[in-house]
Amino acid sequence: MDNIFNSKVRVKILALLYGVKYCEFNYLLKKLETSPGNLWSHLKKLEREGYIEIKKYPLKKGVRTVVKITDKGIEKFREYLNELLKLSGGGI
């Protein structure tokens, strides 16, 4: 299994994005109840591995950061779920 899935925060990020495809940084921050710095470090790791894309959009006051799961992220998350189901005696 990919070492990306060794972190429960990264698994939760991918699980949320798998369901909604994209969302704002602040939404992830609220849902995961972690610090901005911790979330950002996990997002950057996922981005480096090609699992997500991060886009920043300038606003009048600040920046809107949107996080989107990639096709690779969807594929790898499905593989991860399938592996978990196999371990528990199921499968998809």
UniProtKB/TrEMBL annotation:
InterPro entries reported in the protein's UniProt record: ArsR-like_HTH, WH-like_DNA-bd_sf, WH_DNA-bd_dom, WH_DNA-bd_sf
**Any Pfam family the entry gives:** HTH_34
Transmembrane segments annotated in the record for this chain = none
Instruction: Give every Winged helix DNA-binding domain span.
Output: 9-86
What is the protein name for this chain? Winged helix-turn-helix transcriptional regulator
| Source organism | Methanothermococcus okinawensis
The organism's taxonomic lineage, starting at the top: Archaea, Methanobacteriati, Methanobacteriota, Methanomada group, Methanococci
